[in-house]
Write a structure and sequence with these properties.
391 residues, 2 domains, nine-stranded mixed beta sheet, globular, single chain, BirA Bifunctional Protein, domain 2, alpha+beta
């Protein structure tokens, strides 16, 4: 199933069940928000999860682009991306978690044709402050889906030490990606791939870590589009699903790269194009620094493995493909010009870094104090320093 068809099937399925589609926001959070980027579909909806009435009602569905820097070191494996799309549904004080799980199971098995025997679920086991999620467990048992109980992995967001704001127990749906019949459980076998997270938002976490009940019980779900598309299309990674088809076709013509590096280059350049389209520009702090870091990670890989072309040689087709996919109005020529400027800036930084690292102080093993000094005084990030010392 093509990813566009998957999105239509998802949205129409929930519209038939009384959900109103809302427009997803850009990667930039609302003014006054303390985070740099939108990291999940629920992020722009936080006020409504805390009780404010939504103008479109209590049942919502959308497609939201997200960016997570916490997964940067995982990019290159089979499932992680920097910028991705999240298919989301919400019940704002309306139906409860088991209803959401039942609908999710129906969409996967009947709407998308997933074999029920390839599904596994997890649910919250309870932690002393709140009890186990028995309602979700009973639903999975009724449907015949095996379910595993955990504590930290099934409280969202981010377990017991998560951020301030709405939170609660979640039940996650996993799809088997291995050859042969399913084995073991999601926590014991990484061939179980998490595809859909259903959170029953029951509490708000305060600054001191304590929990207080929300004025209404909500359900928040998130399904990663690229991850599910890759599984439905029978590919071995998100980088081989249709979303990345033009990248997989055109990037190897520019650079000869090993598979992990090819994935990183495709992910980071695609993410940079989306950030440009949402109005972010390279800078030394904040959102602009994240963009600059992505580009410098690409350039570090290319300088190490194949410097035959610069990132300014990126085909306009790739810039246009990403801009069209995310419904952005950005001229490819403008993106390529900014890529060229950032590449020249990086080359000047490399020259300065090589000169600085020849000083006697930096000839032996580097301490944390050395890394901080090189960054604060000379603008040299750790990964660039490490790469220069390996030359």
């Amino acid at each position: 199933m093509h990813s566009d068809q998957l999105v239509r099937t998802f949205v129409e399925y929930y519209e038939e069940r009384g959900h109103r589609r809302i427009t997803g926001s850009t990667l930039l959070p609302p003014p006054g928000d303390s985070v740099l980027f939108t990291t999940s579909g629920m992020h722009p909806l936080t006020p409504y999860l805390e009780g404010r009435p939504h103008p479109l009602g209590k049942r919502l569905v959308n497609v939201q682009r997200c960016l997570r820097t916490t997964d940067l070191d995982e990019v290159g494996d089979a499932t992680h991306l920097t910028v991705f799309e999240m298919l989301g549904t919400w019940s704002l004080g309306d139906y409860e978690g088991p209803v959401s799980l039942d609908w999710g199971y129906g969409l996967l098995t009947e709407g998308l044709g997933v074999d029920p025997g390839l599904l596994h679920a997890t649910a919250f086991a309870g932690d002393g402050r709140t009890g186990p999620d028995t309602a979700s467990v009973e639903l999975w048992q009724r449907l015949g889906v095996p379910v595993e109980l955990t504590v930290e992995d099934n409280w969202w967001p981010n377990g017991s030490g998560g951020p301030v704001g709405p939170c609660g127990p979640d039940s996650e749906i996993f799809l088997w990606s291995g050859d042969g019949p399913p084995q073991s459980t999601p926590t014991r076998d990484d061939r179980w791939v998490e595809v859909w997270n259903h959170v029953t938002m029951t509490h708000r976490r305060l600054d001191d870590g304590s929990l207080v009940p929300l004025p209404q019980r909500n359900v928040d779900t998130g399904l990663g589009l690229e991850r599910l598309a890759s599984l439905l299309q029978g590919t071995s990674s998100v980088f081989e699903c249709d979303v990345f088809e033009p990248w997989r076709r055109l990037v190897p013509a520019l650079w000869t790269l090993e598979e992990p590096s090819l994935r990183l280059v495709c992910d980071h350049l695609r993410s940079a194009v989306v950030l440009f389209g949402d109005g972010v520009r390279p800078a030394s702090t904040g959102q602009g620094y994240v963009l600059r870091r992505l580009l410098r990670r690409v350039l570090t890989v290319l300088r190490r493995e194949d410097a035959s072309h610069g990132i300014e040689d990126l085909p306009e087709e790739l810039v246009g493909h990403s801009s069209d996919h995310f419904r952005q109005d950005m001229r490819p020529g403008d993106v390529l010009r900014m890529l060229r400027e950032e590449e020249h800036r990086f080359d000047r930084l490399l020259e300065r870094g090589r000169r600085v690292l020849t000083r006697p102080r930096f000839q032996g093993p580097l301490s944390e104090e050395d890394f901080h000094h090189l960054h604060d005084t000379h603008g040299l990030p750790r990964d660039l320093i490490t790469g220069l010392r390996e030359e």
